[in-house]
Amino acid sequence: MSKRALMLVLLLCNWPGWLAAQTFYVATNGIDDAGRNGSIGQPWATITFALDRVPDGSTVLVRPGLYLGRVRIRGNFATGVTVRSELPYQAQLRADEAILTVYNDNADIQNITIEGFDVAHSGPGAAPLLVQIQDGFGRETRRITLRDNIFHDSYNNDLVKINNGASEIVVEGNLFYNQNGSDEHIDANSVDQVRIEGNVFFNDFAASGRPIPTNTASYIVVKDSNGGDDEYLGARNVTIRRNLFFHWEGSTGSNFVLLGEDGTANFEADGVL
To answer: Over the stretch 144-174, which tens digit does the pLDDT of each residue have?
Structure first.
């Protein structure tokens, strides 16, 4: 077979994937209406509405601006969908509650990448967490990637919590700063196959106009708080590598990375690299 014929065969084999790869848009002036097609001329208003409609293999570009309220990340994709800030960090996600929730009690969630966002609480008095990734009741959440985001200024609890049986989670190339109270930047809690790589962790409360609390806990904790309540007894197969930790402003009794915290009778962290 000639090289030209071989290339033609390869192109034809990949043609269905090409057809499925589409780009859709979310914008601050968008409208969540089933009659709109999600194009740059007819953008939708929310990421959740987009995820409920786009085909597998798609990219959702979120145009610059301020987006208020919770974003429910959901969908079960074989190939995967990427939700990306069109311009890095120019799509700002804000809420006085958990901003990105990645769980669904009615369906599995799989193969979604969140990339390039600026995520923070809107101010004091917020409900816990910026991001939570967990299994639903009897449902799986897996193959979720957080890449190249800025997670900062939680006013209640952790920046990112990965817990309750979530698996195959990747956290890479993100910037983390300013959690709240005796909590963490990342809490990997009763999980399997989590990779935390190439991130930058620090605190600088004064730069955000906040008093320095001196009681914040570790940047990363790997543990199991719920015992046998999910399929995993102890967090397992967690990789933490090539991260940068600096500018500690927390409790003198805490560490950059902590394995186990709750003093349970079982191993809280097993197979951690």
So the answer is: 999 999 999 999 999 999 999 999 999 999 9
pTM of this structure: 0.91
CA distances from 239 to 170, 186, 207, 220 (A): 10, 13, 31, 11
Q: What is the DSSP string of 140-165?
A: -EEEEEEES-EEE--SSS-SEEEETT
Which residues does 193 contact at the CB level (< 8 Å), separation at least 6?
167, 168, 169, 236, 237, 238
- Show the domains of the chain with their CATH numbers: 22-272 (2.160.20.10)
List the 23-26 sheet strands across, edge first: 23-26, 59-62, 76-85, 109-115, 141-147, 167-172, 192-197, 235-241, 269-272
**How many residues in the chain?**
273
With tokens 């909590």, the residue in question is: 183
> How many other CB atoms are found less than 10 A from the CB of residue 142?
18
pLDDT in tens, 79-133: 999 999 999 999 999 999 999 999 999 999 999 999 999 999 999 999 999 999 9
